[in-house]
Amino acid sequence: MASGWGITGNKGRCYDFWIDFSECMSQCREPKDCAFLREDYLECLHHSKEFQRRNRIYKEEQRKLRAASQKTDGGDGKDNHH
Predict the structure, then answer these.
(1) Which Pfam family, any one, appears in the UniProt record (predicted)?
(2) Rounded Cα gap, residues 62 and 82, in angstroms
(3) C-alpha to C-alpha distance for 9 and 2, rounded to whole angstroms
(4) The predicted structure's pLDDT at residue 76
(5) In the chain, which ranges are continuous DSSP H helix?
């Protein structure tokens, strides 16, 4: 990865993030000064924030669908037996 070559022989998709992070680490006094660049690089590699966001969106969509389904069924989640 750090060589800059991707799997197809072109520049790797995260290489620019790596360069920024690497330059910061070589010039900073404290590693925490480069935390945001590290975070960007790791997100590029693993997409963990993207997946978390997609999951939150999916769960919210499912919640709305269930709520709409209950509304159309005439139920509000409570037993209405008399």
Answers:
(1) Ndufs5
(2) 31
(3) 13
(4) 54
(5) 15-27, 35-46, 48-72
**How many other C-beta atoms lie within 10 A of the C-beta of residue 10?**
10
- Counting Cα atoms < 13 Å in the Cβ hemisphere of 23 gives 6
CB 28 within 8 A of CB 34: yes
Q: In whole angstroms, what is the distance from residue 82 CA to residue 68 CA?
A: 24
pTM: 0.67
For the chain, the distance separating the N- and C-terminal CA atoms, rounded to the nearest angstrom, is 68
Sequence spans of domains, the chain:
12-67
